Structure formats: structure tokens, C-alpha cells
């Protein structure tokens, strides 16, 4: 009986030792349910040290802290207890039910995995207003604010958005990074440089704060109705005072990660009034002046002069077309050279745009250039205004004389009368006598055709030699082949855009897609990498000229802009020709 008792005790001790030696590797969550504005702590605990710890992918969360590592050893009744923990602090990205997948670690050559954890993220919850809670202190003392200059602008009227970060003097900010950058859909936008901004003192909700301007943007709405300005969101690492003090009596600071957002802003864009809208209105909104200047008004035939049509002032200068000039047909006119000298600041676009036409008269005489009209919507008076230039007379002193009288609108009228010459046989009868010639049977042998076919193979030999030499010469012409290849490549990529000429939306979508596909094939990049700065850098690396790069980026901007502005088929053809020329130039120049 005593032997059996001793055996039982021995078995119990062995079983206890085996249980004690069992490896444990578990995942624990601080809570199973939380609000989207709360934080979650995940601990991965093990009772024996290991190697190759691999955490799961926290795809639906942002890691705002960790991994933090802690180790504890304790001895109780001679038994050693070991615990090692990896801790992560997570912020949810959206609401929903999510799974924290398995983590793994290698202990004594064996791989161990945790069980998945189910987490539910709900709508934002009211946080307890505990004056000693670090997160509450942070939320009360740091604010990100978006200040919009005007919430009910007209279509194409400039508004500004300024993002300011207000921080209480009682807390300290270590660093921050943007986790959500606003995309200004349905706006023409331009960011204003804010580098070198200094911290300023100000008030927010009646309290003293320090603030820093993080971002400025000028927006021109391209649609009417309610438009949304997306928020700017930051993840900020900061230190807040706690209720504990050091040995010298100073308050100890607690580190906190805080996500702040400027919130969505909605503006209501008013359409431009239909009452009094001119027929030739092209979408100009602001305050402008019109200049039409001829470089010379007295010259000889075959000399050239320039006519400059320019608009200057403050408004949406890059978002409308200048009026065209109308010239008599005896004046040969070339495509205009477009120039922009525009600066954008918080008041919007300011500067000038112009089209310069080169004109060459063909004949002696005086040629009036009719007045040019330009209309725009004045924001100060909220009415349409029309500007008109003076008529310009070009006096061509010497040169050939045009016998046809030319009217001011370019139509040619010939007042000289010509005598009608009658033909004596205009009423001649149909001839009844014929000149038929009888034919005799002939044979193909020894005819001219027979001898020609017989000699043709011998004549083809020198012709084949000449063709072969020309082909070899053409194959050796590397530069010429590149030109021909570039032109062929441009036509290939732009074929769909050419089919859509006249259909504004379809044409510019096809044109933009063609440009993207060309760059993907030529530069070996993906479409989502095609930012304007990246295009500029990649083409520079390929040794493409600055002018060609600017033309390509300008075409891409035209594709984005054209969907919101009235465009005629002539402009579409111009953009198509410019795109074909630019693609061809890039292919010739790229190394």
C-alpha cells in the first residue's frame, strides 16, 4: 500500500513538472470593442524566450506606438516564472468587425502561433472628461483647423483654405506626419509654399495658443452646387503634463500619440447669372484689362509684324481662352504663340496672358483690323462687362497690287466685267459619219508586249540592286529611323483620341489615357506613379529638353482642365496636334 502511495506522488510530481514546462504564447487585447476615436493595446506574451518574432499585419489599424518589449522574472517557492511581452498600440482606420491575425515565434526550434483576435470598431464614443487622463488633456489642448475664405463663391471664383495647428503652451509637440492629405476634387487647385513658417501666438475659442500654418491652397471651383473639401489628418507625437512630480517637484510629462483632423468643409458654389451673359463669354471671372497691340502699322509687302492680344488683371487667368483676331485674306497669319506670366497667392491668380500672332501682308494697300471684344464676369459688381479694342489700320506701302477689290471682312469682289466669247459651233449637229478602222487578227508572239515581258526580268536586276542599296542606307540611318519610329508611335497611341475629335469629354479622356500609356511604355512606370514632379524628373533623366517636358505637362493639365471648360473642335485639334508633336519629340530625344 505504501509503495502504491509513493508511485502516485512520483507521478503527480512528474505531471506538475511537465505542465510547468509547457510553452505558452498568447495574444491579449485591452478591449474587444472600441470607438473609432479610441486606442487599442495588443500584447503578445510568452513564458519562454524565443527568436524570430513575427507580428501580424495590422492592415485595418494604424500603429501609433510599439513594439514595446518588457521582460519579468519572479521566484515563488523556489519556482522561477518568466514572462516576455511585445506590446503594440493601434488606432482604427474605419468602423467594422476586424480580425487580428496570428503572430509567430520560434522557441527551442519549434514554431508557435497565437490565436486570432476578433475586434469590433464602432462610431466615436464620448471620452471620459478625466482631468488626469493624458488622452483627454491632449484632445483639449491641440486643434487642427481649416479656415475657408468664402463658403458661397461663384463658379471660377478664387477661395483659399488655410490649415492651422493650434497647440496649448502647456504641452509639447515632438513631431507629426500626415496620414490623410486632402484631394480637391472638382477644383482647380494650387498649393502655396509654407516653408519657413514660424510659430505664432494667437487665440482659439477664447484661449491663448501657439499656432503654426501647415498648408495653404488656392481653389477655383469648376462645378456648381455643394462641393466637399476633404479633411487634413495628422498623427502627432506629443507630451502632456501628468499628476506626478519628480524629486524636485516638477511635473512629469507623459508621451501620447494623438490623431487630429481638420474635418470636412462644404461650400455652396453659385452659378454665374444667365441674365446679361454675352454670347461670346468664355468663362473669365475677375477684374481684367484688354490690350491689342500691333508692333508696326506701316510696312512693305512680305515684311512681317506682330499683333499681340493680351489680358491682364486678377482672376482665373489660366482657365479661359483669349479671343481670336479676324484678318483680311490678303494678310497671311500664323498660329499664335501663347505666353503666361501668372503668379498665384492667397488672393488668387494675378498677372497676364497673351497670344502673339505673326502676320505677313501679300499686297500693297490699307488693311483694317476690326475691333476685338472680350467679356468677363466682374465679382465686385456681380455683372458682366465687355472690353473692346480700337480698330487698327495696317498701311502696306510697296509691293504687288491685288487686282481684286477686298472688303474689310476679307471677302474678295471683282467689279471688272468680262466679254462672253461665243463659239461658232455651239449648236453643231451630232456627226453621223464615223471613222471606224477594220482590224485584222494578230498574234502575241513578236508583239511589243511580248518583248517587254521578255526583257522585264533583266531590267529588274539593276532596279533590285538600287532598292537594296537604298534599304541598306535607310537601315544605317539611325536618326532617321528614330524619327519615323517616333511619328508612327505617336499615331498609334493617339488613334483613339483622333476618333473622338468633336466629343469633348471622350476626346480628352482618350488623350489623357494615351499620354499615360505612352509614358508607361516609354519610361517603364505604372500609371499611379504619374505625378507631374515624377514625370519631370524621369524625362530629365532621359535627357529630354526642358521645353518638350513643359509642353507635355501642359497637355496633361489641359486634359484635366478641359472637362470643366467650354472647348471647341479647333482647340481639340490643336491639342491633338501638339500631343502628337510632343510624343514624337520625346521619343527622338529620350536616351
Automatic annotation (TrEMBL):
The keyword Transmembrane applies. Pfam families: BatD. The chain crosses the membrane at residues 449-467. Residues 1-21 form the signal peptide. Keywords: Membrane, Signal, Transmembrane, Transmembrane helix. InterPro entries: BatD. The keyword Glycoprotein does not apply. PANTHER family: BATD (PTHR40940:SF2), PROTEIN BATD-RELATED (PTHR40940). This is Protein BatD. It comes from Flavivirga algicola.
Amino acid at each position: 500500500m505504501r509503495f502504491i502511495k509513493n508511485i502516485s506522488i512520483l507521478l503527480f510530481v512528474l505531471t506538475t513538472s511537465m505542465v510547468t514546462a509547457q510553452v505558452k504564447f498568447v495574444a491579449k487585447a485591452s478591449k474587444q470593442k472600441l470607438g473609432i476615436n479610441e486606442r487599442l493595446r495588443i500584447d503578445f506574451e510568452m513564458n519562454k524566450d524565443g527568436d524570430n518574432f513575427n507580428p501580424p499585419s495590422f492592415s485595418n489599424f494604424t500603429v501609433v506606438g510599439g513594439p514595446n518589449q518588457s521582460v519579468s522574472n519572479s521566484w515563488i517557492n523556489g519556482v522561477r516564472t518568466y514572462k516576455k511581452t511585445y506590446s503594440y498600440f493601434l488606432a482604427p482606420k474605419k468602423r467594422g468587425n476586424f480580425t487580428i491575425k496570428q503572430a509567430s515565434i520560434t522557441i527551442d526550434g519549434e514554431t508557435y502561433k497565437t490565436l486570432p483576435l476578433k475586434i469590433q470598431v464602432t462610431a466615436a464614443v464620448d471620452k471620459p472628461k478625466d482631468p488626469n487622463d493624458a488622452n483627454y488633456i491632449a484632445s483639449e489642448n491641440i486643434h487642427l483647423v481649416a479656415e475657408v475664405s468664402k463658403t458661397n463663391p461663384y463658379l471660377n471664383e478664387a477661395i483659399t483654405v488655410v490649415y492651422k495647428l493650434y497647440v496649448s503652451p502647456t504641452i509639447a509637440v515632438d513631431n507629426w506626419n500626415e496620414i490623410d492629405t486632402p484631394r480637391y476634387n472638382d477644383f482647380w487647385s494650387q498649393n502655396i509654399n509654407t516653408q519657413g513658417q514660424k510659430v505664432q501666438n494667437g487665440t482659439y475659442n477664447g484661449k491663448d495658443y501657439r499656432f503654426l500654418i501647415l498648408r495653404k491652397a488656392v481653389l477655383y471651383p469648376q462645378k456648381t452646387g455643394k462641393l466637399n473639401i476633404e479633411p487634413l489628418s495628422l498623427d502627432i507625437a506629443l507630451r502632456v503634463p501628468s499628476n506626478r512630480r519628480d524629486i524636485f517637484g516638477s511635473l512629469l510629462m507623459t508621451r501620447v500619440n494623438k490623431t487630429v483632423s481638420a474635418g470636412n468643409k462644404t461650400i455652396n458654389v453659385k452659378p454665374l447669372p444667365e441674365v446679361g451673359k454675352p454670347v461670346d463669354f468664355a468663362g473669365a471671372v475677375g477684374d481684367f484689362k484688354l490690350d491689342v497691340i500691333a508692333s508696326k502699322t506701316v510696312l512693305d509687302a512680305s515684311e512681317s509684324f506682330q499683333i499681340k492680344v493680351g489680358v491682364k488683371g486678377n482672376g482665373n487667368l489660366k482657365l479661359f481662352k483669349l479671343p481670336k483676331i479676324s484678318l483680311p485674306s490678303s494678310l497671311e497669319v500664323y498660329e499664335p504663340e501663347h505666353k503666361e506670366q501668372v503668379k498665384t497667392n492667397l488672393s488668387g491668380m494675378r498677372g497676364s496672358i497673351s497670344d502673339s500672332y505673326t502676320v505677313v501682308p501679300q499686297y500693297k494697300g490699307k488693311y483694317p483690323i476690326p475691333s476685338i471684344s472680350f467679356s468677363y464676369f466682374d465679382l465686385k459688381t456681380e455683372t458682366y462687362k465687355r472690353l473692346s479694342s480700337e480698330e487698327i489700320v495696317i498701311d502696306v506701302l510697296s509691293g504687288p497690287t491685288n487686282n481684286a477689290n477686298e472688303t474689310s471682312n476679307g471677302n474678295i469682289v471683282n467689279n471688272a466685267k468680262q466679254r462672253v466669247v461665243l463659239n461658232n459651233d455651239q449648236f453643231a449637229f451630232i456627226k453621223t459619219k464615223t471613222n471606224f478602222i477594220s482590224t485584222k487578227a494578230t498574234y502575241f508572239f513578236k508583239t511589243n508586249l511580248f518583248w517587254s515581258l521578255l526583257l522585264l526580268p533583266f531590267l529588274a536586276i539593276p532596279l533590285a540592286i538600287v532598292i537594296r542599296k537604298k534599304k541598306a542606307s535607310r537601315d544605317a540611318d539611325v536618326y532617321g529611323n528614330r524619327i519615323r519610329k517616333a511619328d508612327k508611335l505617336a499615331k498609334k497611341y493617339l488613334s483613339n483620341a483622333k476618333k473622338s475629335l468633336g466629343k469633348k469629354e471622350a476626346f480628352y479622356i482618350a488623350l489623357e489615357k494615351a499620354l499615360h500609356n505612352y509614358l508607361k511604355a516609354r519610361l517603364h512606370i505604372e500609371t499611379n506613379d504619374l505625378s507631374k514632379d515624377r514625370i519631370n524628373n524621369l524625362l530629365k533623366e532621359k535627357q529630354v529638353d526642358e521645353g518638350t517636358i513643359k509642353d507635355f505637362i501642359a497637355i496633361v493639365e489641359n486634359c484635366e482642365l478641359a472637362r470643366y471648360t467650354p472647348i471647341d473642335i479647333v482647340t481639340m485639334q490643336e491639342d491633338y496636334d501638339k500631343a502628337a508633336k510632343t510624343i514624337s519629340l520625346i521619343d527622338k530625344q529620350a536616351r
